[in-house]
Amino acid sequence: MQISKQAEPGVGLSSCAPWCSAVMRLSLRRALRCLLVTVAAGFILLNLHVLYNTPSSDKSRTVGTFSHVGSDVHIQYSVGQSVPTKLSLHITPRPANDTGNHTVTVKQRYHQNIPINDTEALKQEVIRINTEQYVHNLDKFGLSLGADSLVIVIQTHDRPEYLRILLDSMRKVKYIENSLLIVSHDVYSPQLNELIESVDFCPVMQIFFPFSQQIYSKEFPGEHPNDCPRNAKRAEAVESKCNNAEHPDKYGHYREAKYCQAKHHWIWKLKHIYEDIHLLKDYEGNVMLLEDDYYLSEDIIFSTRMLRGLRERDCPDCRMLVLGNYDKNQNYAIHGSKVSVERAYWISSKHNMGMTFNRSVWVEIKKCYNEFCVFDDYNWDWTLQHLSMKCIPDKIRLLVMKASRIFHIGECGMHKKSKNCDPDAAVKQVETKLAENHQHLYPNMVSLAGDSRFKLRDPKPNGGWGDIRDHELCQQYFNTSSHR
């Protein structure tokens, strides 16, 4: 019994040593494991911080295939493993050795020797092109359209020297090959067509405003021989029975077709893009609106993506992104690598350069189409500001870059006349500015600098849009197919 009593504590003491050692080893493992988990969590948080200002990636989308043979278009969609929230169209490039079934070459499509003075032939050619909706360069680049895509739209008149400069600047833009470029013309010209056919850096489509002065050269919406002179007195106009004598604008002036055309073209273009182009039928991504006398920085698409991320984080009620501004002093050293962004409500004189928005904004404009069509101002941008103030719920709120990615180089145009119309000099100034600040492009972070203090008001109409024929034609876009 004594031996047993003495041996029992001996056994207990000797077995404690390995047990304690095991406990110590287990504690050490736990400590190391906790340390590794902490380091991994820190790494993940750091990466989330870097990506915080960028849009979410396109990982799970509905995709489709597209084939374009002659004038026939075939689109087929297939759904992946997960249910997507946004629709994406995927068009694969054609292999170099794949000749396809094309029986008509690109130049035959757009160079049919249409006599410029044959207005009926022009009218039919424009209808054909708008209906066919041919996309150049699909064989080279393919095309993917989703919620994170960008469609770029240029509204152009008859200024090939400016359009050439804009296209040359676009050639340098990073990620441009992933965008769809749409050029909307109000003049049919072999020279302009050749410029578009020279685009070899992205998919591109041409559309034509079908009610242009070129096509309707001697009738409304062009200048009719019996139209009332701009400065005719109303009593004299009524007595002479000139067209629309009873409806001058609010300042007593009669319409001038060359000024009315730009507003018609602008609203027709939006309607055609969102409702008549088959490739964009289900498109929910952004559309960027440009004019032919702009110059783009090479990081404009990159900056657009950064702005979109900032909107998702800090301004979900912002309906528009604006990539350009008219400030005379562009300080990229302050606003470059860490870009400051201003929040504002849409103002025509400040936010009409590089407007970028999705279908939801078009839906709001469309709801207000009657107000757009009757507001007595021949400027589309002043009219849009009026809609924002009086018709569109909660106004159009936006984010605008304080360091501009778009530059207006037009010295001569509809509103500005100058004896020195030298776009090359303006381009050199812009290129020098961008070269001096190249290290500040491609910002790694964007931040909200605050809200604009610019006074918001309903703009006083400028007139020029009192003719009821303009009202009715504008309203017609929303009631019929815009091909005709």
UniProtKB/TrEMBL annotation:
Q: How does it sit in the membrane?
A: Single-pass type II membrane protein
* Pathway this chain belongs to: Protein modification; protein glycosylation
| E.C. code | 2.4.1.143
Would you say which domain of life the source belongs to?
Eukaryota
* Catalyzed reactions: an N(4)-{beta-D-GlcNAc-(1->2)-alpha-D-Man-(1->3)-[alpha-D-Man-(1->6)]-beta-D-Man-(1->4)-beta-D-GlcNAc-(1->4)-beta-D-GlcNAc}-L-asparaginyl-[protein] + UDP-N-acetyl-alpha-D-glucosamine = N(4)-{beta-D-GlcNAc-(1->2)-alpha-D-Man-(1->3)-[beta-D-GlcNAc-(1->2)-alpha-D-Man-(1->6)]-beta-D-Man-(1->4)-beta-D-GlcNAc-(1->4)-beta-D-GlcNAc}-L-asparaginyl-[protein] + UDP + H(+)
- Per the record, the major location class is Golgi
Mind listing the UniProt keywords for this protein, alphabetically?
Disulfide bond, Glycoprotein, Glycosyltransferase, Golgi apparatus, Manganese, Membrane, Metal-binding, Signal-anchor, Transferase, Transmembrane, Transmembrane helix
Q: Name one GO molecular function term.
A: alpha-1,6-mannosylglycoprotein 2-beta-N-acetylglucosaminyltransferase activity
Disulfide linkage: 228-242, 315-318, 368-391, 373-474, 412-421
Keyword Membrane among UniProt keywords = yes
Q: Which cofactor does it need?
A: Mn(2+)
Q: Provide GO CC annotations from the record.
A: Golgi membrane; Golgi stack
> Does the UniProt entry include the keyword Transmembrane?
yes
Membrane spanning residue stretches:
34-52
The family line of this record is: Belongs to the glycosyltransferase 16 (GT16) protein family.
What is the protein name for this chain? Alpha-1,6-mannosyl-glycoprotein 2-beta-N-acetylglucosaminyltransferase
- Species name for this entry? Lymnaea stagnalis (Great pond snail)
